[in-house]
Amino acid sequence: MSVNRIEPLRCPTILFSKEDRYEKIVLMCLSVCMCLSLLLLSSVSAKSIFIEIVPLERNEISLHLVRYVEQDGQKKKPILFVHGVTYSSHEFDVDYGDYSLARYFTEHGFEVWLLDIAGFGSSGKVDDGFLPDSDYASEDIEAAVRCILKRHGLFSMDILGWSWGTVTSGRFAARHPELVRRLVLYAPIVAGLGDVRVEESFHKNSWEHAAEDYQRKADGRIDFNIVEKAVADTYLSNAWRYDKESSPNGGRRDFWLATIFG
User: Fold this and answer.
1) pLDDT tens across 80-126, in order?
2) Hey, what CATH class is 50-261 in?
3) Could you tell me the pTM of the whole model?
4) DSSP-assigned letter for residue 11
5) By three-state DSSP, how is residue 89 classified?
6) How far is the C-alpha of 111 from the C-alpha of 259, rounded, in Å?
7) How far is CA 226 from CA 207, 221, 235, in A?
8) What residues does each domain of the chain span?
């Protein structure tokens, strides 16, 4: 019987000069250092913003109050963001690229606070959607501001109101100017709702309504030649996640009544 002999695999020997070996060692060390630097930078970036939910309650309704801060040992200026009439404070944290207003301010020396008015977003629900009107919302803002000021030992702070938030934060500032350091009215509402009647206490939220915040084509689709798809997808996903199928209509009714009697 014949036996086939298996020859061992012989690998060719590659010889390097001292100079080649030295150069390759240096390149390897540089590569390792670069990888470690990238890992360190990504770790620091991922952990730079601390997010805290702060308990707050008014009229036996829990209010969603969130704090964003960089923990770098530096003193931060508190600022409260106040949302609009349909969608809650997630509007300020579209966490894609540099589209998050909350994270931008946090990275530029502010301690950012987000508040959901009663009945909105992650705050406690209300049975009557007309309850959290503009006056009621201004009192929720007061509760949040006093909570923040107490934590910091301050007498006043900055407030930024968006859309309906310009109305509610403006009413708060008019009643308690001593608590306001600076007030920013971002995209204020000045013309009401026109002929739109508001008779139902809750607004019916929908994809079509949320998508109106973006440029759309004639067929109703979002124009992704103008809007980054990931931005719209993130915002619309948050709208469905936090605001779901309805939002209180108290603020919207205020606009309607102002149109009629104003």
Assistant:
1) 999 999 999 999 999 999 999 999 999 999 999 999 999 999 999 99
2) alpha beta
3) 0.81
4) P
5) helix
6) 37
7) 19, 12, 15
8) 50-261
